[in-house]
């Protein structure tokens, strides 16, 4: 059996980078990145130990920009925590979440300098390393130059994401996933856990559950869900639900971040997925910025299709302020379109001629 054709598509728009992993044409991975605000995973930084906490088997550290992090004792040489005030090189293992700082490791070669000593690889390069036979395609000459610097001729210029993929990626922004043949998944990320419900929509629950389980595992990867995750399938008695465990285990088998915990007393399948990068719903939590960048992407496409047109973005004040606050986004648009985007306050968002 031939290995699946793996492609990595990198689509660049002002202020953001969308990276899609396709295997035999099917979307199997997605990451939304904002280069001006990287999540820091993989970065090597200069940090300072500010509080050793033996009860927590670790230490709190101060990172560049005044951000905090946590250094576990098992991520230090010989499992010994350095004294308070020590300055050392640290690698970021896990992005910050909520009020919790980044998880860091001191198991990294020291190097001179302060602040950020080295940037970690972005998602396209991580997937390129994971799938060495993959093709890497981008719709951006600037991204092509960057990728070729790391990957050589393996990276090439390609067309933008097609309408089908665009629609599937857009659907990741919402809480519902329609299942082929009927039924749907409803995903509810909460601060403490993520609850996922299978709604049969009146269809045969046995058939709907059979379709829902592999799609649930796929959506968990696409959205980068993390932490405790509970799955409630449609209908079925506790015994009938237990019969679904082999299918669920098989669907989760390719995800090294997942630990399956079993069928709980409430009839819910319980699992835990290790967090590394922020889940997609956290990236999109600033709705004003998400809306502004989507409109900026639309304006950039229209300007590219008609270079003589000068575009204006009409939007509520919070959207305009969010765009102005994101370093480089509006300048990136202006450089590509060869004119600045006019920003105008309006209650209804739209892109028009200036």
From TrEMBL:
<dbReference type="InterPro" id="IPR019307">
    <property type="entry name" value="RNA-bd_AU-1/RNase_E/G"/>
</dbReference>
<dbReference type="GO" id="GO:0004540">
    <property type="term" value="F:RNA nuclease activity"/>
</dbReference>
<dbReference type="InterPro" id="IPR004659">
    <property type="entry name" value="RNase_E/G"/>
</dbReference>
<dbReference type="InterPro" id="IPR012340">
    <property type="entry name" value="NA-bd_OB-fold"/>
</dbReference>
<keyword id="KW-0479">Metal-binding</keyword>
<keyword id="KW-0472">Membrane</keyword>
<dbReference type="Pfam" id="PF10150">
    <property type="entry name" value="RNase_E_G"/>
</dbReference>
<feature type="domain" description="S1 motif">
    <location>
        <begin position="42"/>
        <end position="107"/>
    </location>
</feature>
<protein>
    <submittedName>
        <fullName>Ribonuclease G/E</fullName>
    </submittedName>
</protein>
<dbReference type="GO" id="GO:0046872">
    <property type="term" value="F:metal ion binding"/>
</dbReference>
<dbReference type="GO" id="GO:0003723">
    <property type="term" value="F:RNA binding"/>
</dbReference>
<dbReference type="GO" id="GO:0005737">
    <property type="term" value="C:cytoplasm"/>
</dbReference>
<keyword id="KW-0255">Endonuclease</keyword>
<keyword id="KW-0540">Nuclease</keyword>
<keyword id="KW-0460">Magnesium</keyword>
<keyword id="KW-0997">Cell inner membrane</keyword>
<dbReference type="Pfam" id="PF00575">
    <property type="entry name" value="S1"/>
</dbReference>
<keyword id="KW-1003">Cell membrane</keyword>
<dbReference type="GO" id="GO:0006364">
    <property type="term" value="P:rRNA processing"/>
</dbReference>
<dbReference type="GO" id="GO:0004519">
    <property type="term" value="F:endonuclease activity"/>
</dbReference>
<keyword id="KW-0378">Hydrolase</keyword>
<dbReference type="InterPro" id="IPR003029">
    <property type="entry name" value="S1_domain"/>
</dbReference>
<dbReference type="GO" id="GO:0016787">
    <property type="term" value="F:hydrolase activity"/>
</dbReference>
<keyword id="KW-0694">RNA-binding</keyword>
């Amino acid at each position: 059996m031939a290995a699946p054709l793996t492609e990595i598509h990198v689509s660049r728009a002002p202020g953001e980078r969308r990276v899609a992993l396709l295997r035999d044409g099917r979307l199997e991975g997605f990451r939304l990145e904002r280069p001006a605000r990287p999540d820091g995973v993989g970065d090597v930084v200069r940090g300072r130990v500010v509080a050793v906490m033996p009860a927590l088997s670790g230490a709190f550290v101060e990172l560049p920009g005044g951000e905090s992090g946590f250094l576990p004792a098992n991520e230090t040489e010989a499992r010994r925590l350095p004294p308070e005030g020590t300055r050392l090189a640290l690698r970021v293992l896990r992005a910050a979440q909520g009020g919790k700082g980044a998880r860091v490791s001191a198991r990294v070669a020291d190097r001179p300098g302060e602040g950020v000593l080295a940037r970690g690889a972005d998602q396209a390069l991580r997937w390129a390393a994971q799938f060495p036979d993959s093709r890497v395609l981008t719709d951006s000459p600037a991204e092509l130059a960057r990728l070729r610097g790391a990957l050589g001729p393996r990276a090439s210029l390609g067309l933008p994401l097609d309408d089908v993929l665009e629609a599937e990626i857009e659907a990741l922004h919402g809480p519902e996933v329609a299942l082929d043949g009927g039924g749907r998944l409803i995903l509810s990320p909460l601060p403490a856990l993520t609850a996922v419900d299978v709604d049969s929509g009146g269809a045969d629950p046995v058939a709907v559950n059979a379709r829902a389980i592999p799609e649930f595992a796929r959506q968990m990867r696409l959205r980068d869900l993390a932490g405790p995750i509970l799955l409630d399938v449609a209908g079925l008695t506790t015994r009938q639900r237990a019969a679904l465990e082999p299918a669920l285990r098989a669907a989760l088998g390719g995800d090294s971040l997942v630990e399956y915990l079993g069928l709980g007393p409430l009839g819910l399948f319980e699992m835990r997925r290790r967090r590394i990068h922020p889940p997609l719903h956290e990236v999109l939590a600033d709705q004003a910025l998400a809306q502004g960048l989507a409109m900026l992407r639309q304006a950039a496409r229209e300007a590219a299709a008609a270079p003589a047109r000068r575009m204006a973005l009409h939007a509520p004040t919070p959207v305009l302020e969010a765009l102005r606050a994101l370093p480089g986004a509006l300048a990136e648009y202006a450089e590509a379109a060869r004119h600045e985007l006019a920003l105008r306050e309006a209650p209804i968002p739209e892109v028009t001629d200036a």
